[in-house]
Structures are given as structure tokens and as C-alpha cells.
Write a structure and sequence with these properties.
The protein has 103 residues and is an alpha+beta fold. It is built from 3 helices and 4 strands.
């Protein structure tokens, strides 16, 4: 089984908690970590600097497309920042838990 870490930025920790709770309740994610971050980015031709929250979502590779669609449906941003990274190695017991906690 293949596993992924999906990195998502959100407006704030409240939005991240709402999205994370939905992903875990719907068994699209085994676990979601939420971290406060400071972001600098270009939007509509202007450089922006904002406080945001970052989510680290642990899931199975075959669920990534569903995770992306669900996040887009719940997210407040016009273009949510969502990227998925393949997990090459990890604690085998933890990887097994991810598989058992998702569907």
C-alpha cells in the first residue's frame, strides 16, 4: 500500500480544524496536524504576507484525489494550496495504522 502526506494551507487554524475534522470523520485521512505559519506569496500581481495555518494530512495514495476535492469544497480560498507528497519510508506500524484508519 502507498501512502501520501498532503500539505494544505488555510486562512486560519479554525478553517484547518473544520477541514481536518471532516477528512478524519469521513475516513479520507488517518490524522491531520495543524500548524500556524507565516506565508509570503504573490496574488493578483501583489506580494502578500499573511498569517495562515498549514495542514499535514496522512492518507493512502488512492484517496488523494478525493482529499483534494473535499478540501476544495470546504476551503475559503479561490485557489487552495494543496500538494501531495509520496511517503517513501516510515514506521511500518504507523503506515499500517494509516491504512487501517482510512477507507
Amino acid at each position: 500500500m502507498q501512502y501520501h502526506l498532503v500539505y494544505i494551507t488555510t486562512r486560519d487554524e479554525d478553517e484547518a480544524r473544520k477541514i481536518g475534522k471532516a477528512l478524519v470523520e469521513e475516513k479520507l485521512a488517518a490524522c491531520v496536524n495543524i500548524h500556524p505559519i507565516k506565508s509570503i506569496y504573490r496574488w493578483e500581481g501583489e506580494v502578500q504576507a499573511e498569517d495562515e495555518a498549514a495542514m499535514l494530512v496522512k492518507t493512502r495514495a488512492e484517496l488523494v484525489d478525493r482529499v483534494i476535492e473535499r478540501v476544495k469544497a470546504l476551503h475559503s480560498y479561490e485557489v487552495p494550496g494543496i500538494v501531495s507528497l509520496s511517503i517513501d519510508k516510515g514506521n511500518p506500524d504507523f503506515m499500517k495504522w494509516i491504512g487501517e484508519s482510512t477507507r
